[in-house]
Design a protein that fits this description.
Elements lengths: L25 H11 L25 H16 L4 E3 L9 E7 L5 E11 L9 E2 L2 E3 L7 E3 L2 E2 L1 E7 L5 E7 H14 L10 H12 L12
Antiparallel strand pairs: 1-2, 2-3, 3-8, 4-7, 5-6, 8-9
Helix pairs in contact: 1-2
The structure holds zinc ion.
C-alpha cells in the first residue's frame, strides 16, 4: 500500500494512547478466543460486503466479544495471519491478527475502528514482498507497502489504542485496515497483476470453507 489511506478523525484520546503490548501470552490469548468461538466461512472477492466501507463499532459489549472469538476461530481454521469482520460477512470495523513481525516476534490482537497514522516520508521505506488474502484464495502477488505502520483505534472494550508493526506485521495492519474501508490488496495492483491474481484464484481450490457469492 504505497498509496495514502483515507484520513479520518481519530477517536477521542487515540493520539495519546500508549502502544498496545500485543506480544505477551500470545498462545494463551489466541487459544482462549478461538476455543470460545466458531469458525465461519470466508467471503471472497465479488461479495459486496468486501467492497464497501464497514460501519463503525459503537457497541463494545458481549456481541462484539463473541464476534471477535468467531473471528479468531475463523482465522485459525483458514490459517490466516489477519482477518477483518467483513471477511466473515459482518459489516463492522473490526479486525484481528496473529502475525509475526520483522524479527519473527508474534503479535496477537484486535483493533476496532482502525485509522492509519500518517508517517513522515523517512519512515515510508517500501517493502515489495508477496501478499495474499483469505478472500482471494490461492493467489499471491508482490505489492510494495511501507515496512512500518501504525494504526489508532479502540480495543474490544472501547478504550483508545495504538498499534505498530514492522515487516510482515506492518503489511498485515495495512491490509486489514484496507479491508474495513472496502479495499482489497488486488485493488492496489496494476490491471495486469490483478488479472493474473484472479486467474490464480480461478485455478485453485480453497483449503477452507468460503461463502458462495450472491
Ligand atoms: Zn485480506
Amino acid at each position: 500500500m504505497s498509496q495514502q489511506q483515507d484520513t479520518r478523525p481519530e477517536p477521542a484520546g487515540a493520539e495519546d494512547a500508549e502502544f498496545v503490548v500485543d506480544t505477551e501470552d500470545c498462545e494463551a490469548r489466541e487459544q482462549a478466543h478461538r476455543e470460545r468461538g466458531t469458525a465461519r466461512p470466508i467471503t471472497v472477492v465479488g461479495n459486496p460486503v468486501l467492497h464497501r466501507e464497514c460501519r463503525d463499532v459503537t457497541e463494545f459489549g458481549e456481541e462484539l466479544a463473541a464476534l471477535v472469538d468467531d473471528m479468531f476461530a475463523s482465522q485459525r481454521a483458514a490459517e490466516g495471519v489477519g482477518l477483518a469482520a467483513n471477511q466473515i460477512g459482518v459489516d463492522l470495523k473490526v479486525f484481528v491478527y496473529d502475525c509475526p513481525d520483522d524479527d519473527g516476534v508474534r503479535h496477537v490482537g484486535v483493533v476496532c475502528n482502525p485509522v492509519p497514522v500518517e508517517l513522515p516520508a523517512e519512515r515510508r521505506r517500501l517493502d515489495d514482498s508477496g501478499e495474499g488474502c483469505l478472500s482471494v484464495p490461492g493467489a499471491y502477488s508482490e505489492l510494495a507497502r511501507p515496512d512500518y505502520a501504525e494504526v489508532t483505534g479502540q480495543d474490544v472494550h472501547g478504550a483508545p489504542i495504538r498499534v505498530r508493526g514492522t515487516g510482515y506485521f506492518a503489511r498485515c495492519l495495512q491490509h486489514e485496515t484496507d479491508h474495513l474501508y472496502g479495499r482489497l490488496y488486488i485493488d492496489r495492483l496494476s490491471k495486469r497483476e490483478r488479472k493474473d491474481v484472479l486467474k490464480q484464484m480461478a485455478e485453485s481450490t480453497p483449503r477452507y470453507e468460503t461463502v458462495p457469492n450472491p
